[in-house]
Fold this protein.
Amino acid sequence: MMTGQIAFGSVLMVISVLIAGQAVWALEAAFARWARWLMRAPHRPKLVLVVVATSLAVLAMLTASVWLWATTFHLLGVFASFEESMYFTLVTFTTLGYGDVLMPQNWRILGGMAAANGLLNFGLMTAFMVEALRHVRVRQIEFTKG
């Protein structure tokens, strides 16, 4: 059972990373499309727009990943209701870990993998948000100088 949970959890993590990759790809395509406009003054409102757009894309990606895990827990019958599956997933994915809803012992490896996936996603998406803002700002400065 443990090996099966690790394998199944790994598949869910790969799907979650693919979802993240799609979000990054879509945002990158949008930034490329609007690059000339983003580089022209005024810069500050456009930087705010980049932060908002990136934050919304990250939120959408994280929401999709949480739904993926919660739906999986629900379909496997791990929890009594979908609401309980969603709540557990949110608390686990964010590593908040209230402990008021616990994973049944025979599924706890999969619960730990959900937490690892949440940690990975938050780290990747934080790096992506910082890089998107840095990239636009550097290009703005280069455009102004050149």
